[in-house]
Write a structure and sequence with these properties.
The protein has 14 helices and 15 strands. With 441 residues, it is α/β, with parallel strands linked by helices. The strands form three sheets. An eight-stranded parallel barrel has the order 3-4-5-6-7-8-9-10, surrounded by five helices. Strands 11-2-13-14 form a four-stranded antiparallel β-sheet, with no helix packed on it. Strands 12-1-15 form a three-stranded mixed β-sheet. The mean pLDDT is 97. It is an enzyme of class 3 (hydrolase).
């Protein structure tokens, strides 16, 4: 069996089920009807007005991490990174790893002139880029214990005190500019005797969210977990991650959103095992269906789909697998965001730049090659959100000045042809709103 047959074994076997569920889910969960009421400045309805509705920005969030913002080795590469990121994504995950944000106690790296740390662009720089380009920022992560600074003592009370201070400072500085905050990450990855004492506390999740809720009053508070606990070790309502969240919610812990990583971190020779655990559409839907019962939205927070090489067939397989997975996630009612991890090959974690045999570089899991050329994977994501899942509709007002169109939720540009003149307006067409718009021309 060739690699392509191995990777798409379950997708091929379940093609009819998957295609039907994806198509129905997208129609039901990602699209709706907008009602337009067009009037003149005196309030009289305008009939016969031609309208063109064009989706400008999806309400559904899709993005990648922004860890290489101005971190590449040449200006040309940095400019290309910024250009290609904003062309395709509407969300960016920003690095708030405590160890790298505050390597020296009391001297956090917030400002643009702070000392450089590889793969850790400072928050002020990231936010400037996001705000200039209409990209929603998201923070990763308030309490990620393995990334605690060396100066934090392995003492429970002192760790809590220092985390409280960190939460407070970040909320004061960035709470109004960053809505979504991952509060705690990878608690299922505990290494028993290697981890810090506070990480082993039975209420580490509850404490972290309660403390975050104290300072981040109007923010989205997200729990995040690794791929193994999220997908591979799935046992329906007996799944460890599910039980952890269920227990926390029963204890009135303010978890707003469930984060699930999706890193296919398997060596190439074990890809058949990876596909068995993570590449079965029926199982993927079962996982999402189960976690949806917790009545919290789901984010696919960190995605790595390996190509394993620069070979054309490997890159095409990566792209097709991304298309299949994104379609499943996008179609599911509970999912609110899909976030790829590393955009560029050669700059992943635990490896020197460009060393494709080391660390996470081994997987060739980026959407761009090391030279910044676009892989098929990048083009697939761009095409999904800008062409396949895109709306451009023409309609005309009736005798009562009303018109309707069906489309994907998001920000729209409406162009009106009124008496030979062209007028443009913007509307926010949201899944969470009634979507009845009165427009005065």
């Amino acid at each position: 069996m060739g690699r392509k047959e191995t990777v798409f074994k379950y997708f091929n076997e379940q093609k009819e089920y998957t295609n039907d569920r994806v198509a129905l889910g997208i129609e039901k969960n990602r699209k709706g009807f907008a009602e337009l009421s067009i009037k003149d400045c005196d309030g009289a309805p305008l009939k016969g007005v031609r309208i063109k509705a064009v989706l400008e920005k999806h309400e559904f969030k899709h993005g990648a991490n922004l860890f290489m913002l101005d971190e590449l080795e040449t200006k040309e590469k940095n400019d290309k990174y910024k250009e290609l990121f904003k062309e395709t994504f509407n969300l960016a995950t920003l690095p708030f790893y405590w160890k790298d944000l505050e390597p020296e106690q009391g001297k956090p790296r917030f400002e643009k002139d702070s000392p450089r740390v590889y793969r850790r662009p400072v928050p002020d720089l990231c936010l400037e880029y996001c705000e200039e380009n209409g990209i929603t920022p998201k923070a990763h992560c308030l309490n990620y214990m393995p990334w605690s600074p060396d100066w934090v003592p392995d003492d429970i009370d002192e760790t809590k005190r220092l985390l409280d201070k960190r939460f407070h400072e970040l909320a004061d500085r960035y709470g109004d500019r960053i809505h979504g905050w991952e509060v705690i990450n990878e608690t299922m990855e505990i290494k028993l005797f290697e981890d810090r004492k506070f990480f082993k506390e039975p209420d580490v999740v509850e404490w972290s969210f309660d403390r975050a809720d104290r300072y981040f009053k109007n923010n989205e508070l997200i729990i995040n977990e690794a791929s193994s606990a999220s997908w591979e070790q799935f046992k329906y309502n007996r799944s460890a991650y599910y039980l952890q969240i269920e227990r926390a919610l029963l204890n009135h812990t303010p978890i707003d959103t469930i984060g699930m990583q999706y890193h296919m971190f398997y060596p190439r020779e074990q890809e058949n095992v990876c596909i068995e655990r993570m590449g079965n559409p029926e199982k993927l839907f079962a996982v999402l269906d189960q976690y949806a019962k917790l009545n919290r939205p789901i984010q696919i927070t960190e995605i790595t789909i390996p190509a394993y090489s620069k070979e054309e067939e490997d890159e095409e397989i990566q792209a097709e697998l991304i298309k299949q997975l994104y379609s499943i996630w996008f179609s599911h009612e509970a999912v609110e965001a899909i976030i790829y991890w590393n955009m560029v090959d050669g700059y992943a974690a635990f490896a020197p730049q460009g060393d494709m045999a080391s660390g996470e570089n081994y997987y060739y899991g980026g959407l761009l090659r090391f030279d910044m050329s676009e892989k098929p994977a990048y083009k697939v994501i761009k095409n999904l959100f800008q062409n396949e899942w895109h709306t451009e509709e023409d309609c005309m007002t009736d005798g009562e000045g009303k018109a309707h169109f069906k489309g994907f939720y998001g920000k729209y540009r409406l162009t009106f042809d009124v008496g030979g003149k062209t007028v443009e307006k913007e509307i926010d067409f949201s899944k969470k709103a009634s979507n009845r718009f009165e427009i005065i021309l």
